[in-house]
Structures are given as C-alpha cells and as structure tokens.
C-alpha cells in the first residue's frame, strides 16, 4: 500500500474538497496523484503558500507552508 499525505492543509485545499490522506495500490499511482495535486495547488490556489513533495518508501508527502 502506498500513500499520498498532505501536511498542514490550507483553506484552499479544504475548500476544493481534497482529502489529506489517500491510499494507492502502486507506487506509480501514488506518484501520479501527488504530482497532480501539486500542479493543481500551484496553478489554482491563492498563492499564499508554497508546496513541496517528498517521497519515502514509495509514499509521498506534500508539505504546505506559508510563502516567506
């Protein structure tokens, strides 16, 4: 089982109806979803946050932090 976790979800993330944890059968599915979420957040959210992603053992964690 592979996961995509979103740490510190912002209000834009919540308003768009995304969930902060998802499970996938393959590493490729998890990576595709993580990349999709990063793309959506970078292009459609309010620009008050920065987004980064880290892979560990086939699971992906997306970090949301305020822009400096």
Query: Over all CA atoms, what is the radius of gyration?
Result: 11 Å
Give the strand order of the largest sheet, numbering strands 1, 2, ... along the chain: 2-1-4-3
What is the helix fraction of residues, given as a range? 25-40%
Give me the strand/helix succession.
Answer: EHEHEE
Beginning-to-end CA distance, first to last residue: 35 Å
Unreliable residue runs: none
- Give the helix tally: 2
How many beta-strand runs?
4
Structural classification: alpha+beta
The major β-sheet equals: 4 strands, mixed
Question: How much strand content do the residues show?
Answer: 35-45%
Mean pLDDT: 96
Shape: globular
Describe this structure in words.
This protein has 68 residues and is an alpha+beta fold. The chain has a domain at 20-66. 34% of the residues lie in helices and 38% in strands. It has two helices and four strands; from the N terminus they run βαβαββ. It has helices at residues 11-15, 27-44; strands spanning 2-7, 21-24, 49-56, 59-66. Strands 2-1-4-3 form a four-stranded mixed β-sheet, covered by helices on one side. A hairpin with a 2-residue loop joins β3 and β4 (59-66). It is globular, with a radius of gyration of 11 Å.
């Amino acid at each position: 089982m592979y996961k995509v976790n979103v740490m510190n979800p912002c209000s834009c993330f919540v308003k768009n109806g995304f969930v902060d944890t998802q499970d996938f059968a393959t590493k490729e599915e998890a990576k595709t979803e993580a990349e999709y979420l990063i793309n959506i957040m970078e292009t459609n959210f309010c620009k008050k946050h920065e987004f980064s992603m880290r892979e560990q053992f086939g699971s992906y964690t997306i970090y949301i932090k305020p822009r400096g």
